[in-house]
Specification:
There is one protein chain. The chain is about 30% helix and about 30% strand. The protein is elongated and about 65 Å long. The chain has a five-stranded mixed beta sheet with strand order 1-2-3-4-5, covered by helices on one side. α1 runs parallel beside α2.
């Protein structure tokens, strides 16, 4: 079973495969929107997929993957857990770190000065 959860408020698409319940999808949508809707983030687009394995013997039957564009950066996050809420929480934590890193890439304020032969280290 594949289902799509279209929302007009977020440019991130949420998809599911397997027997994923509505509560898990709603919980995931809330957590994903909280991460990608933070102030200061550039435009975020992409897809998050939540999969539940049908086999009962799997140790971590829940899998969540996020494939996003944060501004001009590509972010991929994967999480595997035993329950739907756990996989969403782990995905949210990893997405939070990765989107923050992608948003601030290139804004490094701790740059070393250029060497003297490139014009650095000159005294006025």
């Amino acid at each position: 079973m594949t289902s799509d959860t279209p929302r007009t408020t977020s440019a991130v698409r949420l998809r599911s495969d397997g027997p994923v319940d509505r509560e898990t999808l709603d919980y995931a949508r809330t957590k994903i929107d909280a991460v990608v809707g933070r102030p200061g983030l550039p435009a975020v687009t992409g897809e998050v997929r939540i999969v539940r394995a049908g086999a009962g013997h799997a140790e971590h039957p829940w899998l969540a993957t996020a494939d996003l564009r944060v501004g001009g950066r590509h972010v991929v996050v994967v999480a595997e857990e035993a329950t739907g809420r756990e996989v969403v929480d782990v995905l949210r934590d990893r997405l939070d770190r990765q989107t923050d890193r992608a948003a601030h890439a290139g804004h490094d304020t701790h740059r070393t000065p250029p060497p003297p032969w490139r014009g650095g280290g000159r005294s006025a």
